[in-house]
Amino acid sequence: MRNKRWMIIIAITWSFITVNCQSMKENEIINLPTPNKKSNISIEEALQSRRSVRSYKKDSLSIEQIGQLLWAAYGSTSGRKKTCPSAGATYPLEIYLLAAEVKGISTGLYRYNSANHSIIKIQHTDIRKQLTEASLNQEYIENAPASIIIAADFKRTTKAYGARGERYVYMEVGHCGQNIHLQCESLNLGTVIIGAFEDDKVKQILHINEDPLYIMPIGYKY
Ligand SMILES: Cc1cc2nc3c(=O)[nH]c(=O)nc-3n(C[C@H](O)[C@H](O)[C@H](O)COP(=O)(O)O)c2cc1C
After folding, report:
1. Which one of 52, 147, 214 would you pick to mutate in the ligand 1 pocket, going by the greatest count of ligand atoms within 8 A of its CB?
2. Which of 5, 95, 146, 167 has a Cα-to-Cα distance from 155 of 20 to 30 A?
3. Percent of the residues in the chain that have a pLDDT greater than 70, as a whole number
4. Residue % of the chain over a pLDDT of 90
C-alpha cells in the first residue's frame, strides 16, 4: 500500500517535470549574433548571380548565417524601421525559422523578434516532412537544413488602408523575399520562393495565427 502511494507520487512528480521541461524548451529564447554590414560581394553582383536553387548539400548552417538572413528579411535598422519597406510602416509580416540542421540552434520552429534580434522557440519537433507534403511535395523543404517562412497579419495594414491594404501586404512579402534571396547570394547559399502550398494545412502545421505566404528553404548550393 505504502509502495503504491510512493509510486503514484513519483509518477506525478515525473510527469510534472517532463511537461515543464517541454514547455521551457518551447519558450527558449536565442539571441542571434550581430549581423554583418559588410560583405565581399556587391549588390550588383548579387542581383546578377541570384537564381532559384532547389537542391542543397547536407551541410549544416550556422547560427551566424541564420542571424544574418533573418536580419536581412525583416531586421531592425533604426528605431521602428526595418530592412524591408512597409506601407505606412504597418509591418504586417511575421518571420518564422524552421531549423533542422543549424549549429547553435536546436531543431524546431521559431518566431523572429526583430526588436532584439532574437528567436523564440514555438515548436520543438522537425516538421519538414509535413510541410513538404502540404506544399505539393516540393521536397526541397524536407532536404534543406533550414527554411524561413513569411506569414502576414493582414489586419495590421488593412486597418490603416482598408481593402487596398491587402495588396500592400502581398507587395511587402515580395520585398522581404528578395532581401532573403540577395542575402543568400552574398553568403553563397541557395534558396527558392515557394508560394504553392495548401494555406490551411501549412497554417495548421505551424500552429500560427497569421497567414503563411512564402516558404523559403535554405542550404548550401551544389
Ligand atoms: C510568388 C512566387 C511564387 C513561387 N512559387 C514557387 C514554388 O512554389 N515552387 C518553386 O519551385 N518555385 C517557385 N517560385 C520561383 C520561380 O519559379 C522562379 O523565381 C522563376 O522560375 C525564375 O527563376 P529564378 O528565380 O532562378 O530567376 C516562385 C516565385 C515567386 C515570385
Report:
1. 52
2. 146
3. 89
4. 88
- The one-letter amino acid code at 119 reads I
Please give the grid coordinates belonging to residue 191: 534558396
Supply the pTM of this predicted model: 0.91
| Whether 172 contacts 195, CB under 8 Å | no
Grid coordinates representing 107 are 531543431
CB of 170 closer than 6 A to ligand 1?
A: no
Please write the tens of the pLDDT for every residue from 35-75: 999 999 999 999 999 999 999 999 999 999 999 999 999 99
DSSP-derived secondary structure letter, 193: -
Neighbour tally for 102: CB within 10 Å: 21
Q: What is the number of residues in the chain? A: 222
**Residue 18 pLDDT more than 80?**
no
Q: For residue 179, report the phi and psi dihedrals to the nearest 5 degrees.
A: -55, -45
Nearest atom, ligand 1, residue 140 CA:
11
Residues 6+ apart with CB under 8 A from 25: 106, 108, 121, 124
Is 20's pLDDT higher than 80? no
What domains can be seen in the chain, in order of their start residue?
27-220 (3.40.109.10)
